[in-house]
Amino acid sequence: MTRKRDRRVAPSSDHHETGVKTPTRPDQFSEAAASDRKLMTIFIVFFVVIPAVSILVYRIKYAPNTDSSYSQFQEDGLVKTDVDYQEILDENSKTLKNESHRHYTYPVLAYITPWNSKGYEMAKRFTNKFTKLCPVWYDLKSQGTGLVLEGRHNADMGWISELRRNGNALVLPRVVLEAFPKELLKKKKLRDKAIDLIISECKEMEYDGIVLESWSRWAAYGILHDPEMRNKALQFIKQLGHALHSVSSSRNGKQYLQLVYVIGPPYSEKLQPHDFGPEDLQSLSDDVDGFSFMTYDYSSPHNPGPNAPLKWIRFTLQILLGNSGARALANKIFLGINFYGNDFVLSEGMLESPISGRVKDSYTSYKTTLNGMGLHKLTID
Which residue spans adopt a coiled-coil conformation according to this UniProt entry (predicted)? Predict the structure, then answer.
């Protein structure tokens, strides 16, 4: 009897191996090391490199302004609170060497007055520091039943030509509206005549527009207390601005003639009828290219003191830009900075404004003590 054999079934060729290959110990170590290196790289990038780059970019972008002009002030020892009168006598006529480069993009308007003999020369020398130059030349006056624009004899065309050869500052002469307000504002014929005289002068003399001063005179005449007359005054300014904007500049056909309007500061939060306020600012914004805000003459002969305290300037500006609508027009405000001093004669209740030639004499005469006044550096860059 034969022995029964065990039959072993061979694995079918139709089946594939499905077993998992177990890695050896060296392979495990190398994979773990590679994973650690990746984690370390990610850690360094996110927690070291990126913060370092961010700090570098921030410091470059928001670095404090340490321009050469400020450095020069520091080197010369001019930035300090204790200033001796002799230092003012020695330094008052000196200027920085930088005559052209501007560090800021905002517009700057400078007045050139006939009573300051150095103004014309300084405007030529530093013309690239300014965007608008306003020579004080014209007066619009009543003459019989009509009007006359006086002041062309003050115009210096050679000076204007030299300005334009050296830079791109616009020339906008000041026009003071001295005509009788009630007659001018009530009669359409006179209003049209005033605008025609101004535009004709701009065309003939190739000006870039004008700076108009009228609000303070209207306030002095008392017409701004009459709501109807006040509205006519605003409408006249709008009409003038619209007419100027309809005329192309003779120097640049793509640019229209401009209007800058002079306004005074309010002296209290409760606006008076003669005060120029936020609503007036918004009303004229489309037809006026800029507002020359006279933030100076804070003191008077009866109440002598500083010309323009910084807190007062901020206070008046906040009132003018009182609501959200007017605040959007802040870029149209030329904040006034006076470059003159007042000599108060207290016994006589009089005020004298010394100009460049007499400032030195005043300091020499009085030997004024300036300690503790906290004088501030001012540059127009």
Answer: none
